[in-house]
Fold each of these.
Amino acid sequence: MSARWFGLAAVALLALAWGVLPAFSITLLANIGLYTMVALGLVLLTGVGGMTSFGQAAFVGIGAYATAWVCTMPWVAAGLGLAFDSAWLPWLGLALGLLCTTALAWLLGSVTVRLSGHYLPLGTIAWGLSLYFLFGNLGFLGGHTGITGLPALQFATWQLSTARELGVLIWALVLLAIVALHNLLDSRPGRALRALKSGRIMAESMGVDTARNRLQVFVLAALLAALSGWLYAHLQRFVNPTPFNLNIGIEYLFMAVVGGVGHLWGAVLGAALITLMKHYLQDLLPALLGASGNFEVIVFGLLMLLVLQRFPQGVWPLLVQLASHWVKAPVPTVAQATPGLPQRLLPAPGSVVLQAQGISKHFGGLVANNEVGLDLKAGEIHALIGPNGAGKSTFFNIVSGVDSPSAGRVTLVGHDMSGQPARAFAQRGLGRTFQHVRLLGTRSVLENVALGAHLCGQRGWLAAMLRLDRAQEAALLAQARAQIARCGLSEHSSKPASSLALGQQRLVEIARALAGQPSVLLLDEPAAGLRHLEKQALAALLADLAAGGVAILLVEHDMEFVMNLAQRVTVLEFGQVIARGTPAQVQANPRVREAYLGGGELAATEIEAVALEGQAA
Ligand code: ADP
Ligand code: MG
């Protein structure tokens, strides 16, 4: 049975059970649906985006209070009575709730989402607390007693007044959300979201606006929470601040984490497990212990520790593994032949595409780059060499926008790039790899490479959720596959990137850079870890790219590789250019030879050998 059929069977089972289960179980199921909705947001926010929030309960509260307020304030009804039938009030409440949530999440998000490390979780605790107390202290929201007398939801003449009726809507929305989020994650914007977790530098270098994506996912998670709150209010028909306090916020996070925070179905599983466990422990423990008290909280905490310790990825991946005998993972559908993506026009061969003028970079007292200047021309391979610590990677980071120089200017295809972020460099056609490989280790090679094509597409979140992006997605994947093939990685395409040898992971990074159709390619030690034949294949690929008009700047320690491949070489030592010229000129340069010999590097003997070979020839 395939996973899709399994999912459909589960939904069918739920639908069948809906008619026959006792009211009490239905209420429990409806609640599980409500929790799932919030946990889904956390899967996206925490599991995919890498941001931890303890404050989701507060957004549930906004959704609930907005509709409670609209539905029960006589003057709202009166004021709108002319235009609205009172059956419309809950829908007006929904609109208000979503609007307030968007505004508030945007505001809170733009402050807290920028915070890194432990500041973000702390920030979410702070707003979770303050919103909770706000609900309790605002007179027009009924203070700590809350608001009672909410109407049932109504579709035309169909009243959703019981859990059995409203539960259908709740689960329909949960399933819709799962489908939409699943589609989102399996798309160009989804890849960008996944890249957030690996940090700002790599994602921005691929052209992803990380700040905006973080904010967007934060708002989306908040909206799911608010939707849950709206449904909750009309299920309970009253609201008070208690279900929106920080404890519950923590519980939502537990649900997502216990279920499996990286998986959408983990949200369903986590919500179900925790709701059921809490429910049964609540009855069971006092009976067992013969005393009344909230023992479940203690047992619950211990269980949680156990689960997190034993299954840090959550329970869902475990189930998937157990079921793998019977349930086949979905086979990715192979893209249809589509019209390819528009190709970037490369600058005329020989024209200067990247120019660095007087680049200096200070780290405290250390001068990592000292007035480094370099021109890179279309169609040339230019090597940047020098002993370890000479400042090569620092220079790379500056000319790719990852770091800003202390002084100096970078010009990319005629544009002054001062003050621009790395994604602006990517937009202008710069592709790069990293000395310390930056891949999404658990994702497939194909997905990693397709991220490199981010800027070749433009379909956004909504198109992805509604699957209106399929033609473009097929074209992006085709482009990624072509580059994977070009780098000789086709057989590894569907393997997780981290399962490859380090040298091959470097090739994946090259394929990823190529997927962005670069006109300038910066490679930081691409041949490190490659075997002899692989190095030859890489050299042939780079020569081929340069012949096609791409400008390549290359840092590499393998002198034989560099000297045979590069047309020009620039040598750095202690952050300063000490020589530049053709490989032969550089090898003959006494300062270079001294730098290498003086540095006591392995490379010293290599440069010797190559130089001697050159003389003999
Ligand atoms: P290379 O790539 O040539 O081996 P790097 O550019 O990595 O050299 O480093 C040049 C010098 O700058 C080294 O002394 C290194 O310790 C220092 N350096 C690099 N990055 C930083 C940083 N972020 N903060 C402080 N010092 C740094
Ligand atoms: Mg380096």
Note: The longest helix spans residues 210-236.
Amino acid sequence: MTCKITPLSDHTGAEARGVDLSRPVDAETRQRLNRAFVESSVLVIRGQSLTASQLLGGVQLFGDVFQQHNSRFALPECPQIHYLSNQDRYQDGSRYIPGAGYHTDHSNDAAPPKATVLLAINLPDKGGDTQYVNMHRAYEDLPDETKRRIDGLEAVHVYQSKFSARKLMDLPADRKDKVPVSVLHPLVRTHPETKRKSLYLNPIRIEGVAGMPESEALGLLDELLEHATQEKYQYRHRWQPGDLVMWDNRCLLHKANGDYDHSQTRYMYRVMLKGDAPF
Ligand code: SIN
């Protein structure tokens, strides 16, 4: 079967059919998939039925595996693959919905992951979509005056911003001193492969803007986030059984929706791929 790739919206997302990542993939298909990922920012590979170790093998068509920060979600049989589940709870007993609220993954790392990959293992009957916003488009539409204002600014990223509306799960004791404490990244970054600029925001992890008073920084970040998350920049992924979805953390924000019946399990495998220091 040959691989067929089609766009999912006019700015973000492409789906590939006719690929089985549990089997060897030829060089031409690998190149087409990588190009589709870079050009579309979200690549959906339909119809995948993979064990964790097959997933680990398959994603290496796109890059090297990045070690995710919170090892409490690592699968014992394949620790580079983590899981996401709506059946986990915080210590106070409330339900934990991983990924709720727009963010980009692990931006507190000096070299954050270029991509995150989710493989649907169990889906609710309806709901639980993942929403993306295209930060290239959002940046390109900013007024010139705003572009000048933010040019050269750097944001402070931490594991969990004190301003985050969402609480992350605590790190296990043996990981606390291994996760970067704080790092500066440009508010406007350049995609290393396409050279397009994008806004690089993360309300879960950004705690301020270097050299800017806190109230001014929070106002600016809110203004940029409100602009970037408008519906016109969105691609909303409605999951189908067998979907493997990989997205480009360098130029997208994403969020999970907790808008479904929580007596049903939403369970995914998650793996990330190494990226470069943003510039
Ligand atoms: C995530 O933020 O990595 C999870 C997204 C999702 O579960 O849809």
Note: The longest strand covers residues 78-85.
